[in-house]
Amino acid sequence: MNLAAVKLRKCRFADLEPILQIEKSCFSTAEAYSRSRFESRYRVHRNNFWVAERTNEIAGYIVACSRGKSVNLDSLAVARKYRNLGIGSKMLRMVVRKLRSKGIKRISLTVKTSNRAAISLYKKIGFEVVRLSKDHYRNGSDAYLMEKIFD
Fold first, then answer.
1. Ordered structural domains, the chain, with CATH
2. Would you state the torsion angle of the CA atoms of residues 148, 69, 137, 38, taken in this order, to the nearest 10 degrees?
3. So what's the pLDDT on residue 30?
4. Residue 19 pLDDT greater than 90, yes or no
5. CA atoms within 13 A of residue 60's CA, in its CB half-sphere
6. What pTM was estimated for this model as a whole?
7. Which long-range contacts (CB under 8 A, 24 or more apart) does 41-47 make?
8. 92 class by beta-carbon count within 10 Å (0-12 exposed, 13-18 middle, 19+ buried)
9. What is the CA radius of gyration of the chain?
10. Contact 137, 100 (CB under 8 A)
11. Which end of the chain is more exposed for a tag (fewer CB within 10 A), N or C?
12. Which residues partner with 61 through β-bridges?
């Protein structure tokens, strides 16, 4: 697949249904965000809520929550059929670039310690593990807190 055929654009309210389908396919029932949580993120953080689209189909999404000069990368997921094609990397690089241009100094995120693919992606973009959060998730799984700090 040609990565140039993947368009990154701001999320629209109508995108929430396909985003929910991606969410449910990527995360366990206990970890998946609800529709109301996505609606809240859309209302409050619309300027940092993006989708990757290919031939009028949502292939993935990313949402970041701003707090002053810091941002928390709240969620990023790519539909299974579009994985390992560079879409997650393309979305993350674009968001990091946009946030940096807005004067953001720090981006943080949490990731399950067993999610090697995501950890590898984040490290490739310049995120570093800053600490381990034991029993972070409802099922008792641990998480890493990762950060990218700009000078």
1. 3-149 (3.40.630.30)
2. -120
3. 77
4. yes
5. 25
6. 0.91
7. 41/65, 41/74, 41/75, 42/11, 42/13, 42/16, 45/74, 46/10, 46/11, 47/10
8. buried
9. 15
10. no
11. C
12. 51, 77
Q: 48, exposed or middle or buried, with CB in 10 Å at 0-12, 13-18, 19+?
A: buried
Identity of the amino acid at 59: A
**Are the beta carbons of 104 and 73 closer than 8 angstroms?**
no
Q: Which residue has the tokens 């997650």?
A: 88
Amino acid identity of residue 143, one-letter, is A
Question: 117: closest CA among 76, 148, 147, 151?
Answer: 76
Whether the Cβ atoms of residue 18 and residue 64 lie closer than 8 Å to each other: no
- The pLDDT value given to residue 37: 95
pLDDT of amino acid 1: 61
Question: How far, rounded to the nearest angstrom, does the alpha carbon of residue 41 sit from its chain's CA centroid?
Answer: 12
